[in-house]
Each structure stands twice: as C-alpha cells, then as structure tokens.
C-alpha cells in the first residue's frame, strides 16, 4: 500500500495505469490457461467437491471474487485490468456453457455422468469406482431421503450435482438390509 502523504488522485492512472497493450494479451492467455486447467482439476476431484454448483460455477465465483477484491483493495492496479479479467471470465463461462451444450464430446469431458448406484434394492458397486464414492456415503445420502432399508429403493441415481435422486417402491416387497448406522455396525 502507498502512504497517505504520497497519494494523489489521477483518473487516467486509476483506469489505465502504466501498462501497455501487451498486458491485455497476457491477461487473456492467463485466463484461458487457468480456467481450462481449473475446470479439469475440479472435474477430476469429483462431484462431491462442488455440491449443487457446477465446476465452472465454482470457478466463476472464485475467479471473479479475486478480480473484484484486487480492484477494490489495491490502488496500484488500474481498473482496466480487473474489468478486462471479469469480462473475459464471464465470456469464458458463456463459451464453456455453449460448447458443452452444442458439442457432446466436450460435454463428456467437462460434465460428470449421472450414475445409477441402486437398482431394485441392490447396490451397484461397480459404479461406485467411477465416481469415487463408497457404500457408507451412499447410505448417508439415502438416509437423507428418509430411507431406512435398502429394499425400499427401486432406483437411486448419483446426479451431476453430487446429489442423490431416489425413487422408492410404493409398496416395497420386504423391508430388509437396514442402512441405519446402528444396524450397519451389526452387519460388519
């Protein structure tokens, strides 16, 4: 930070600073590299990390928050730089969504699949490894839907958001395989 005695108001300096046009090219390249890399890392980490938001939404919030914070806090950064960054981040987000909708091969890489985890009261354990989830997490998500017995569930899907969609039998055939914590310790 600068000392108060050294400060003088200069609108041109505040908006543009002492930077040449090449800094804007560098900002574009930095944003492109960071956004793509971060989206791939968030996708690699998995659905649970981002919860109800998409990976690009999380990145958008973090990146814009950083740009806005820098613009407000550091007088040495001309406003044109964070405004460019914010605009490019928003444009990247729009492009990311558009490309994901328009081109299925891109969507397969950038968006996680919906995965069936329970079918007719049975765990589909082979699908657990695809999304790095274990049976205890599935049981927790089922209990959050009021499920007490695995046999109550006709189908359960692990959504792109990391939430579980549960379809119950209207009249379950039998109530077996309790997923309550006190019963799970008895089963192990």
From TrEMBL:
Residues 102-171 form the YetF C-terminal domain. It comes from the Bacteria. Its main location: membrane. It is a multi-pass membrane protein. InterPro entries: DUF421, UPF0702_alpha/beta_dom_sf. The keyword Oxidoreductase does not apply. It is found in: Cell membrane. The chain crosses the membrane at residues 21-46, 83-101. Keywords: Cell membrane, Membrane, Transmembrane, Transmembrane helix. Belongs to the UPF0702 family. This is YetF C-terminal domain-containing protein. It comes from Kaistella solincola.
């Amino acid at each position: 930070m600068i000392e108060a005695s050294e400060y003088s108001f200069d609108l041109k300096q505040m908006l543009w600073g002492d930077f040449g046009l090449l800094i804007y090219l560098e900002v574009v390249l930095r944003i492109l590299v960071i956004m793509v890399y971060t989206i791939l890392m968030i996708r690699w980490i998995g659905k649970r990390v981002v919860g109800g938001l998409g990976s690009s939404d999380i990145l958008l919030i973090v990146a814009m928050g950083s740009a806005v914070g820098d613009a407000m806090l550091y007088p040495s950064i001309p406003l044109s730089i964070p405004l460019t960054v914010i605009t490019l981040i928003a444009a990247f987000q729009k492009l990311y969504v558009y490309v994901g909708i328009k081109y299925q091969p891109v969507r397969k890489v950038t968006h996680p699949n919906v995965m069936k985890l329970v079918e007719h009261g049975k765990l589909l354990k082979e699908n657990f490894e695809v999304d790095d989830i274990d049976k205890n997490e599935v049981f927790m998500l089922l209990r959050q839907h009021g499920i007490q017995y695995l046999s109550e569930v006709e189908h359960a899907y692990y959504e792109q958001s990391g939430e579980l969609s549960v379809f119950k039998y209207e009249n379950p055939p039998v109530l077996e395989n309790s997923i309550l914590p006190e019963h799970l310790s008895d089963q192990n």
